Amino acid sequence: VAGALAILIIGFMGVKLIKKLIVKGMKHHGMDDTLVSFVSTLVHMGMKLAVIIAALEALHVKTASLSALLGAAGLAVGLALQGSLSNFAAGVLMIIFKPISLGDFVEINGVSGTVKQIGILTTDLDTLDNRHVVVSNSNVMANNIINFTYNDKRRVDLVAGISYGDDIDKARAAIEEVMAGFDEILADPKPDILVKAMADSSVNFDVRPWCNPKDYWTVYYGVTEGIKKKFDERGITIPFPQRDVHLYEHKDD
Questions:
Q1: C-alpha to C-alpha distance for 163 and 131, rounded to whole angstroms
Q2: How far is the C-alpha of 206 from the C-alpha of 194, rounded, in Å?
Q3: ∠ CA(127), CA(131), CA(135), 5° rounding?
Q4: Rg (CA), the chain
């Protein structure tokens, strides 16, 4: 009994010390706090279980059957929680490799939103219309992730159409004037104003200013409205789809 108590006391003290060393080492290498907490807890529980089994051995308790029972129970729990374990593994990978971070605006499997929380099993997103979406971590890692805020610059893609009778250079100058009025638009890279296509009813420009990710929607909606107002001011026509209909009159003999 004295030996078993000594094993428990010394063993638990050793487990506590090892846990502190693991936490210190992981933080020293800059690992995420969530990963540090989960790994240290799992290691702590495993080592405590090993100390308890050693103490039982000191009491001459046969632990072979106990180990087999624990193994069977662990297998059953593992099978029952297979999906959760998959999410757990995916969560650990997300914490290590950081494909997304808190505050990023992302699209995952067709769902777009701002990352509010990265848990060990699920990731929480808030959509633009303020819906809260919970995505399993395994689903996050199994699909393509589009991270709109990962880079420090983002391009805004707009299309502006003018009629065939309007002057292209005059329209380009009007668009340049509109974009010059936005402080959110970056000077480098320089915005593009390119003739994209001669469509059925209009000559279309690709308008491509650059901005910081947080200013994307300000630039998108502001430039769109500004181009419409500027075209109206300069007498530049924004055409609508139209068709020519020819009527033929047939005279009876």
A1: 41
A2: 5
A3: 75
A4: 32
Q: By the 8 A CB rule, do 227 and 161 touch?
A: no
pLDDT in tens, 128-168: 999 999 999 889 998 899 999 999 999 999 999 999 999 99
Tokens representing residue 211 in the block: 């901005």
Q: Say which amino acid occupies 168.
A: I
Token code pair at residue 162: 């003018």
Stated pTM of the model: 0.65
Question: Rounded to whole angstroms, how far apart are CA atoms 220 and 213?
Answer: 11
Place of tokens 């004037």: 177
Neighbours of 26 (CB within 10 A): 17
Task: Dump pLDDT digits (tens) for 214-243.
Answer: 999 999 999 999 999 999 999 999 887 767
191 burial (CB, 10 Å; 0-12 / 13-18 / 19+) is buried
- Rounded Cα distance between 103 and 149, Å, is 9
Three-class SS string for 146-171? EECCCCCCEECCEEEEECCCCCHHHH
Total residue length of the chain: 253
Q: What does the alpha-carbon distance between residue 222 and residue 33 come to, in Å, rounded to a whole number?
A: 40
**Pairing verdict, β 192-198 and 158-162:** unpaired
- Rounded CA gap, 132 and 35, in Å? 24
